[in-house]
Amino acid sequence: MLDLVAAGHDNAAISRRLHLSPKTVRNHVANVLTKVEVPDRSALIVRARAEGLGGGTV
């Protein structure tokens, strides 16, 4: 899921791709934000890309 966020996919696209409800995706992203200790989705993307995630296309 983090790879998809880092690639620039929104929650709706991630939910369709992973066959999860949008609420489940939103909850997972919120949990990742907390665990990685970043304030928002943009910071999460920067951190994930620095770690080599998100190399795919949107």
TrEMBL record:
Q: Name one GO molecular function term.
A: DNA binding
Query: Coiled-coil regions in this chain?
Result: none
Question: InterPro entries annotated for this entry?
Answer: Sig_transdc_resp-reg_C-effctor, Tscrpt_reg_LuxR_C, WH-like_DNA-bd_sf
- Supply the Gene3D superfamilies for this chain: Winged helix-like DNA-binding domain superfamily/Winged helix DNA-binding domain
Keywords from the named record: DNA-binding, Transcription, Transcription regulation
Q: Name one GO biological process term.
A: regulation of DNA-templated transcription
The HTH luxR-type domain, residue ranges? 1-52
Does the record carry Transmembrane helix as a key word?
Answer: no
Q: Does the keyword Transcription regulation apply?
A: yes
Record-linked Pfam families: GerE
Identification of the protein by name: HTH luxR-type domain-containing protein
Organism the protein comes from:
Cellulomonas soli
